[in-house]
Specification:
Layout lengths: L1 H15 L18 E5 L4 E12 L5 E11 L2 E10 L4 E4 L2 E8 L2 E9 L5 E4 L2
Antiparallel strand pairs: 1-2, 2-3, 3-4, 5-6, 6-7, 7-8
Length: 123
């Protein structure tokens, strides 16, 4: 009889245990620090700041990041331009960057480094 009670108590405790938390998967958002992408001059630089996780058509994950122009103490975000590749310097006042969606470039933009305003470029 004692053995039966012990077995019943053990089964009851096992049933009441909390389930293990689910294992982390690769699509969990990881926060990345701001990172310098392009130094244009002593006082002007371009940085990756915010980010979003996305997936391509095959389901492979990627990170698309926002650009920010820094002019001395000013920090000017480039609006609505998520990219997965570093921008290219055109001259002291302009860079070019690709707009990404679902892990691939869909449009090409020139960005004014004074206003951070993007302008679509037709090729």
């Amino acid at each position: 009889m004692r053995r039966g009670r012990f077995l019943l108590a053990a089964l009851t405790l096992a049933a009441c245990r909390r389930a293990a938390p689910p294992a982390e998967t690769s699509h969990v958002t990881e926060t990345r620090a701001d990172s310098l992408v392009l130094q244009v001059s002593d006082s002007v630089s371009v940085w990756f700041t915010d980010q979003r996780q996305d997936r391509d058509s095959a389901g492979a994950p990627c990170v698309e990041r926002v650009l920010q122009v820094r002019r001395g103490p000013l920090r000017i975000p480039v609006p609505l331009l998520y990219t997965g590749a570093a921008p290219v310097r055109v001259n002291d006042s302009t860079i070019e960057a690709d707009l990404w969606l679902h892990c691939r470039a869909i449009d090409h933009y020139r960005v004014d480094l004074h206003s951070a305003h993007p302008l679509r470029v037709t090729r």
